[in-house]
Each structure stands twice: as C-alpha cells, then as structure tokens.
Specification:
The complex is a heterodimer of chains A (about 110) and B (about 110). With about 110 residues, chain A is mainly β. Chain A has no helices and 11 strands. Chain B has about 110 residues and is mainly β. The chains are: A mainly beta (about 110), B mainly beta (about 110).
Chain lengths: ~110, ~110
C-alpha cells in the first residue's frame, strides 16, 4: 500500500521567512514523489517532481529515502505563495497518484 | 490545447436526483482519473482509466457512483441517487505515462 502523510493542515509564515512543508511517505517499492499546488479557486498544478531535481518559483524538495520524506522548502516566503499544497506519490511505472491531505500555507504580510 | 475540460463548473441538485459530471481529457493522453476533494479527506482517487478501460475503481464509494469512458476524448461520472454527503469538488485529470497529471478546473457539487 502507498500512503502520504502531511502532518500540518495549516501553516502560517511571515513574508521573507523560510518555509518548510512536511511530507512523509510509505511505499515498499521505488517511489516517485510530486508536489502539487492549488491557488485560490484554481485547478491543481504540478509544482515539481523529485526526478527533475529542479527549483520552481524558488521551491525545492529533496527525496530522503532514509527518512521517507519529501519536504518542500523555500528560503524566503512571498505573499503569492499562499495556497494549498499537496504531496503525492506513485510507484515507478505506475500512474496512480496517492495524495496527502494537503497543507494550507498562508503568508503573513 | 485547452487543457482538461470539465463541465459543469457548479452543480446544485436535490437529494435523490441523478448527477452527471463530464470530462474531456487532453488529446493524446491515455490515462484519465476522477478525484473527489473534501475538507476532511483531501483528494481521494475514485477511479482511473487507461486507454478507455477502467483499471482501478476501488475508490468508488458505493454503487451509487459509476463512471464511463466511451472513447478517448470523453468520460462521465454519475451519481444516482445523490446524497448530501456527496457534496464536494470533483476533479478530472489526464496524463501520458508517469509524467504527472494535468487537472481540470473541477466541478463543485452541492446536494441539498
């Protein structure tokens, strides 16, 4: 079975402060990890995926297989980062995505 | 490409009525997914199709829910009869391989 845990339902951070959204996963095989973002009243969008090892909108995420984590980080929060963030997992070669319950990030001006 | 297109955007219906949600995936994508989003449970996979064939419907809550994909460019999710606890946002997504999903704008369903 595959499971994604996002322990924080809500997270508030001051503008300019660092952001870390936590994600832990459970999967017996080789996982592929993703972060999706949903801005207010918009569709979910792919933010980044671990195999790309890229930085999108200043966000990065590193897959830590030892800790089974894929935390999303940004050094300096911006007001436009306020959104709902979902961590998701699929098995290699498997299209089915399992999502965490999401974290609502609010950036305080 | 206009992306994944869902209709209607909003649906308000009375308990007991039949509800049909529609989805047009991105042309060329061979997989289609239906998700339900609620505050309490987040995003739940209801069913997904690959090449128009249902692959995993283990997330469909009960027999009141059914989904079809008659061709590569169209899918429906039907609830009959609807109940207030079905109120949620229903998302459709499509993908080509494991490169990540493209989501539609969702249908906000309210059952009164």
């Amino acid at each position: 079975a595959q499971r994604v845990t996002q322990p924080e339902k809500l997270l508030s951070v001051f503008k300019g402060a660092p952001v870390e959204l936590k994600c832990n996963y459970s999967y017996s095989g080789s996982p592929e990890l993703f972060w999706y973002v949903q801005y207010s009243r918009q569709r979910l969008q792919l933010l980044l995926r671990h195999i790309s090892r890229e930085s999108i909108k200043g966000f990065t995420a590193d897959l830590n297989k030892g800790e089974t984590s894929f935390h999303l980080k940004k050094p300096f929060a911006q007001e436009e980062d306020s959104a709902m963030y979902y961590c998701a997992l699929s098995g290699v070669g498997n299209e089915k995505l399992t999502f965490g319950t999401g974290t609502r990030l609010t950036i305080i001006p | 490409d206009a992306g994944v297109i869902q209709s209607p955007r909003h649906e308000v219906t009375e308990m007991g009525q039949e509800v049909t949600l529609r989805c047009k995936p991105i042309s060329g994508h061979n997989s289609l997914f239906w998700y339900r989003q609620t505050m309490m449970r987040g995003l739940e996979l209801l069913i997904y199709f690959n090449n128009n064939v249902p692959i995993d419907d283990s997330g469909m809550p009960e027999d009141r829910f059914s989904a079809k994909m008659p061709n590569a460019s169209f899918s429906t999710l039907k609830i009959q009869p609807s109940e207030p606890r079905d109120s949620a946002v229903y998302f459709c997504a499509s993908s080509l391989g494991t490169g990540g999903y493209t989501f539609g704008s969702g249908t906000r369903l309210t059952v009164v």
